TrEMBL record:
Keyword Signal part of the UniProt annotation: yes
InterPro entries: Galactose-bd-like_sf, Uncharacterised_BSP
UniProt keywords, alphabetically: Signal
Protein name: Secretory protein
Cleaved signal peptide residues: 1-18
Domain of life: Bacteria
PANTHER family documented for this protein: PLANT BASIC SECRETORY PROTEIN (BSP) FAMILY PROTEIN, PTHR33321
Species of provenance: Gemmata obscuriglobus
Pfam families: BSP (PF04450)
Amino acid sequence: MRLLPAVLVVLSCNPAVAAEPAPRPRPIQRAAVESSLPSVAGRIRQFAFDGDATTYFVSERNASKTDHFTIRFDTPVKLKSVAVLTGRPNGDDALAAGSLELSADGTTFESAATFDKGKASATPKAGTVRAIRVRSTEDLKHPLVVREITLDSNPRVTTFRYPVEFTIDVTDAPELREWTENAVRVCEREYPMICDLLASDGFQPPTQIRLAMKASYDGVAMAGGNRITGSVKYFKSHPNDIGAMVHETAHCVQNYRGRGLPGWLVEGIADYVRFWKFEPGTAGRVNPQRAAFDASYRTTAAFLAYVTNRYDAQLVTKLNAMLRAGRYDAGVWKTLTGKTVEELNKEWRESLR
């Protein structure tokens, strides 16, 4: 639960003068970034819109005049100004012949400015914008490098606080390309939520995750390191189960290195991300006769949700930090809630009746 900043209201001695209402926070808009150019390793697309000029996108190959780098907004925004900086920090690969283009519908683009010494900026006078595009106007002899895009708009467009890029491998099932591309777009959009929930001091979540669809894999999906494997057979017959990929993305962010960690809690946290944050209300009922805190997956997730709501809103974040640091033991429940896990389990089961 996020706490709003305290507001000090000073009441006037003059009853005819009303106190000014607290200003409403500006609404926030989200964006997605795409390109016809694949990213070179370590220089992903979202780096171009993360508010950090030391990180930047670099294309894997030289750009042609048919290539593009595009940011799309969820809904149109009133764009007050936009500025694009290209090229590496030392000045190399700056875009000399290029166009900064805007689109009201996300499909048809019109030039708003041209690049000069790697920079372009525009101040639209009227209307709304759905997408911004950077395009070379000639074939380049170097990669496209987009260092930072800066926007002033209403509503404000949030930058990528946890930049990430998924790459896919659908060699075993080319017919699943569209499904897989949609799944990774969902996972990229949910990434800030996952990273916030599973944050800990000093930890940096992965910026690149690879998703491969395999015909030889008989399970549903699994994750190891920064790699996710999905079952071709399963997702062909369960195309709506994108939540399974969100679950595996949570495993990539968990990034536990210790040995002997309780598997029921590791899986329970990932399912808590899925069923209580990504698709709440879909976990189904838990049978009170069979409920157990260590039953794993969605049952453990339901237990975590109960304890979170009853005792500590930051419970999952704290448990995750302990697991990541290798400091988890059964005594942490008493420390965090004042009760043992067995006592909490009994209380939870009673609540289910």
